Amino acid sequence: MTKNIAIIGCGAIGSQLAHYLNDGKILGFRLVALYDEEDEKLNLLEKNLKNKHIGLYADFDKFITSKEFRDTHLLIESASIAAAKAYTNSILNHDKDMMIMSIGAFSDPDFYETTTEIMKKKGNRVYLPTGAIGGSDILRTIRDFITDITLITTKPAKSLKGAPFFRERGINVESFKEKTIVFEGDALEAIKQFPSNVNVSALVSLAGVGFKKTKVMVCIDPSYERNQHEIVVKWKFGEFLIRVKNDPSPDNPKTSYLAILSAIECLRSISDKGFKIGS
Q: Is 53 a catalytic residue?
């Protein structure tokens, strides 16, 4: 059975997913609706889609009472942490499944608990793609034996521009002339200071030992063109390092292109009836 999909957020990730779905490149799914608070983004995306027969909504109340929403099986949030927190529980209460890209929303313990309770009550699913990093299967496997875990994120200035950490301190990200550690703390604080830049830390935290026990280091390096994430783990029976270097998305330097591809693969795994690879 073909499943209907609606996308919330028409930025870099949402737009790419919309094109893949609209072009029929992900078997088993059909794009039926787009929601974004900004009409300009909606209209620009719809203009570039081959199939124009989809619902466009800039008002959330109209969206969730629409025929397209009623017919939707899976909604993809690709907007922001604020959007994920604002819309997720309402959507789940309408008995819909979701894929959430802004995983940092779950650093809020109240939101995490409420979402978990709704899923238990309703029996629906929330999918969290691995994003710009690998190793979540290992972390889930050994989480009870982890003694120390650190995520080290290194990015060029353009990928960190606009982060609250710099804005609140009046720091110009372009002023750094050499690699500099700009933040050290736990994942909880990292997501507050870099909500659009260290979404990886949320996935690492959820797969591993939680937000407060996951250490995060953010570095800015003007010589870098790529976004780099390193997970350094010590556990009872060994240790390991995972390093991933990604080209930023051409549409949004804050997003690694791998994050978009991971969402596409997550969709494929949902519809795939063959082997399920990984733990």
A: no
Q: The tokens 């783990």 sit on which residue?
A: 233
* Nearest Cα residue to 267 out of 69, 20, 8, 63: 20
Q: Is the pLDDT of residue 249 over 90?
A: no
List the catalytic residue out of 53, 73, 94, 229: 229
Average confidence score pLDDT of the chain: 93
- For the stretch 102-124, pLDDT in tens is 999 999 999 999 999 999 999 99
**CATH superfamily of the domain spanning 3-128:** NAD(P)-binding Rossmann-like Domain (3.40.50.720)
d(CA 132, CA 200): 7
CATH code, residues 136-252 = 3.30.360.10
Window from 43-52, 58-67, 143-152, 233-242 with minimum mean pLDDT: 43-52
List, in sequence order, the alpha helices (H) in 175-215.
187-193, 199-207
3-state helix, strand, coil in the chain (%, to 5): 40, 25, 30
Alpha carbon of 122 to those of 97, 100, 118: distances in Å? 10, 17, 6
Determine the Cα–Cα distance for residues 260 and 29; give it in Å rounded to an integer: 17
* 55 touches 42 (CB < 8 A): no
State the pLDDT at residue 53. Answer: 87
Tokens of 277: 């690879």
